[in-house]
Amino acid sequence: MYKTFTMELAGRTLRVDVDRVAKQANGAAFMHYGDTVVLSTATASDKPREGIDFFPLSVEYEEKLYAVGKIPGGFNKREGKASENAILTSRVIDRPMRPLFPKDYRNDVTLNNMVMAVDPECSPELTAMLGSAIATAISDIPFDGPCATTQVGLINGEFIFNPSNAQKAVSDLQLTVASTSEKVIMIEAGANEVPEAKMLEAIFAAHELNQKVIGFINQIVAECGKEKHEYESCAVPQELFDAIKEIVKPEEMEEAVFTDVKQDREENIKKITEKLEEAFAEKEEWLAVLGEAIYQYEKKTVRKMILKDHKRPDGREITQIRPLAAEVDIVPRVHGSAMFTRGQTQICTITTLAPLSDSQRIDGLDELETSKRYMHHYNFPSYSVGETKPSRGPGRREIGHGALAERALVPVLPSEAEFPYAIRTVSETFESNGSTSQASICASTMSLMAAGVPIRKPVAGISCGLVTGDTDDDYLVLTDIQGLEDFFGDMDFKVAGTDKGITAIQMDIKIHGLTKQIIEEAIARTREARMYILNEIMIPCIGAPRAEVGTFAPKIRQIQIDPQKIGDVVGQRGKTINAVIEQTGVKIDISDEGAVSVCGTDLAKLEEAIRLIEIITTDFAEGQVFEGKVIAIKEFGAFLEFAPGKEGMVHISKISKERINRVEDVLTLGDVVKVVCLGKDKMGRISFSMKDVK
User: Fold this and answer.
1) pLDDT tens digit string along 227-244?
2) Is the pTM of this model over 0.85?
3) Contact 338, 542 (CB under 8 A)
4) Residue 366 annotated as lining a ligand binding site
5) Burial of 640 (0-12, 13-18, 19+ CB in 10 A)
6) Omega of the bond prior to 56 within 30 degrees of 0, cis?
7) How big is the CA angle at 82 (ends 164 and 393), to the nearest 5 degrees?
8) Annotation-wise, does 492 bind a ligand?
9) What domains are there in the chain, each with its CATH number?
10) What is the full DSSP assignment across 390-415?
């Protein structure tokens, strides 16, 4: 027999079945939230993986298209690689869970979440987050949980907890907050310039609701939880630490890491490593963990310098930002380009504009978003950190950083009606020493403005770090963390926004949560830094979007036609529209509502295409003057083509004011002439005249 547990969560029933399915996993929770169904499992290997110095956690979020009644597209007709949404969801599950496992645990752990049914009222992503926490908490895998997650929307100034798809579509905020029983452990947000105070209010409202969920999980654990298994600790022996400190004194390690040049620091650590390898050449068991020991020694040194001495490795003050630089138009012929540099972090972003038909189509579980016109892609080549390895395409980190920058910029983009373009920005990492994702937001803002995209406001991003001591009050928040402070610190708190408010947040931590005081200070610190970057660096470089798109960018004009006339423009089997395209060389997109976008690089050709479409959709009326090309000559008159699929006839008597015997005496095939519409004749046909044109 299996056990079922239920609670009311944000107006819907959350049901968890334990021991109903997947009994061979270490822990399994069969989750039902409304009609959304997710199977969450937690599985661990029996022994640690050899030869590694990290915790091998894998988080999977599997989108099964049968969950929304779809058959996958393509030839294979089965789910392929994970979608971008699945990757981002896996990352959101990973971030709060990872710090709660023991630091010296090296057994492989896989958290798998399989979405089996989707109710538009109940988020499958949220259900999977809760499912992973429950499956791990009831398993025998060592875990310092439970944790819980809540999503928050903001509609007309009111918070909506765990909003439905329909509510998300009109919400000014999409916030996800994970908590333990004491502290906030993860924050991720996209927002329409939500003020800092309102964001803080939303975060702690979610934290409060998380406590109710944690109480529910504790009930499940009390009844169904397994005893946590013993494991082989992979901690570095204390004797090795003691031996290292005899050879490399603390002041020598401080001197090695206290430099603002990343390459110099790496070279110093390399020399220390070589000295220790030589000293321990006969102790193979120590050599196996020497790299981890040096890492921890370096980490303790950096943390002590920051927390106790208020000294940062590059000599900056606690609130000081690294040297900044910004420039635009560094790459010719592209539609827009900009470079943003912060210390040894350097990002170049290229903007490309295209017709709306080039928008990305999305095939997934989300019925709301089937396409997107703005795409931000982030690349992190190995040379940016002085390494050499082949490029295998974007990994989860690159996809996550690109999505964060995209989320930060979407709120300031113009509507399709204002700017009928598909927009792609690509951030290339030239150098990396911390917070490249936030530098890519700054570079992308300037690149968009340089490309002539009329964004409403510039967006900047910055990251704060944290070093904590033994008590909640013993901590130090660092503005603009570099790579070393990220590696050895406790937090990477990224915040992007305008001068009005926040557009995106992503918080990663390595400890068991943050107090309210730390979160408030971090958000205040990021706003202060953001204002400096905007006002002192970005706006002086490019203060406003350019009035027109660049020379090499496509020009798009949009007109509105009667939706009933779409068939006239398209023609039978596309004959009419293809003729316009062939004649003018433009690209034409027509929406179901009759919005016609004409795209081309030659303005004259573009205007010609619009003229032809307007003629095609115009009902001939008496007195209208048109220009047409002679396409056929008969004894009784000439046939003219005014636009593809739009023809008319001029009777021989209406060609010239003087009497003519033959049409050929005045007209030849291919002539372009002006005519005026005379209305309908006695037989109901539209007639035209050349001689009556005024």
Assistant:
1) 999 998 888 888 888 899
2) yes
3) yes
4) no
5) buried
6) no
7) 130
8) yes
9) 3-224 (3.30.230.70), 238-307 (1.10.10), 324-508+515-541 (3.30.230.70), 555-616 (3.30.1370.10), 625-689 (2.40.50.140)
10) ---S--HHHHHHHHHHHHHHGGGSPP
